[in-house]
Amino acid sequence: MTDDRPHHDLTGPPTAPPLVLGPSIGTSLAVWEPQLPALAREHRVLRWDLPGHGRSPAALLPSDGSATIDALAALVLRLADEQGWERFAYAGISIGGAVGLHLAAHHPDRVGCLSVVCSSARFGDPAVWRERAALVRAEGTEAMVASRPGTWFSHGFAQSPAGAALIEDLRATDRAGYAACCDVLASYDMTADLERIMAPTLVVAGRDDPATPPAHARRIADAVPGASLLEIAGAAHLAGVERPEAVTAALLAHLSGTAPARPGDDASRHAAGMAVRRAVLGEAHVDRAVARTTPFTARFQDFITRYAWGEIWTGDGLDRRTRSCITLTALIAHGHDAELAMHIRAALTNGLTREEIGEVLLQSAIYCGVPAANSAFATAQRIFDEIDATPHVDSASHSDTEK
Ligand SMILES: O=C(O)CC1=CCC(=O)O1
């Protein structure tokens, strides 16, 4: 590697569609580790390190306070050019997402699909970022270590191996590189440019993110034409680390072109429906349903994929969490226990916590009847126990029956 480009790595089939992943300040490209295996299955993934972070040289950005988002975006374009990628999908966390917004607005021919995770069009008061830059230049990134756990994670997660490793990456970050990224954030303001973005855009927020709270995500999603918004419960700023399955599912669905299918033909509705169905119910589950399809069930399989998933679940009028609440209630009301089990797992994938699922079940006791809710609680407890007994299995990888 020469010293004038960011450190980066490449994963996935060399001929697969390109996807560039950008990290957040204080982290390295390892922050994308939880998503990498799934994303690299069907993409050639390029992850890059911010200047002074991971293994990138700090000198990629000026140290005199003049660093800009344009300079960071130029580094990414350089990496894409080296790969011969005229057009690529881009996903970025926080400042990494800001680079994506900038690229999509100012180089619209380069970004075919955009996802921004816990990011913003403006990261608050520039003076605060200038102060942080000065502090880190004087004292190093150790000065940020005490406050990051509460910003990056909701309670307790910082003590997990994944959380602790990220804090160590912060400690290892070069002070000049970190400070220059603060300068970037001080001068960054995309507010007036969001409406120029034409790439299909997904905006993801962590509900408990104090750095870029959901209101920041809403501002982006409201201004970028056609953007979708997903808020993830039980996650702070590094939502992809804390709630990996929810973020991975959202990115996969977006990358596979699940923009609302209406108006469209049956084929595009089927394709969009299949992608959302996979994102919500899990790859393994849908693979099993497809494998079980017979000539007798084929029309019905096509119908639910195209209609339930391709028309209704793809809609952007309600978020997936809300759709899960409605679906759980309806299944309880009609006593469909096998479908309920499947949709309890789907609700977890869609970002509902166990406590929130419990609230839905409690409320169903009022409107669907106590016996129905009693049976639903038993089903939910069984699913939670199954998940706890196999902690490394994706909550969506289940064997409950689906039509
Ligand atoms: O300060 C943090 O750690 C949160 C954050 C703001 C921009 C970014 O990349 O991370």
TrEMBL record:
Pfam family, one: Abhydrolase_4
UniProt xrefs under InterPro entries: 4CMD/NDH-1_regulator, AB_hydrolase_1, AB_hydrolase_fold, AhpD-like, CMD-like, Decarb_PcaC, PcaD/CatD, Pept_S33_TAP-like_C
Taxonomy, superkingdom: Bacteria
Peptidase S33 tripeptidyl aminopeptidase-like C-terminal domain location: 198-260
Residues covered by the AB hydrolase-1 domain: 17-146
Gene3D superfamilies for the chain: AhpD-like, alpha/beta hydrolase
Domain Carboxymuconolactone decarboxylase-like: 299-381
SUPFAM superfamilies: AhpD-like, alpha/beta-Hydrolases
PANTHER family associated with the record: 4-CARBOXYMUCONOLACTONE DECARBOXYLASE FAMILY PROTEIN, CARBOXYMUCONOLACTONE DECARBOXYLASE-LIKE DOMAIN-CONTAINING PROTEIN
Protein name according to UniProt: 3-oxoadipate enol-lactonase
Originating organism: Streptomyces mordarskii
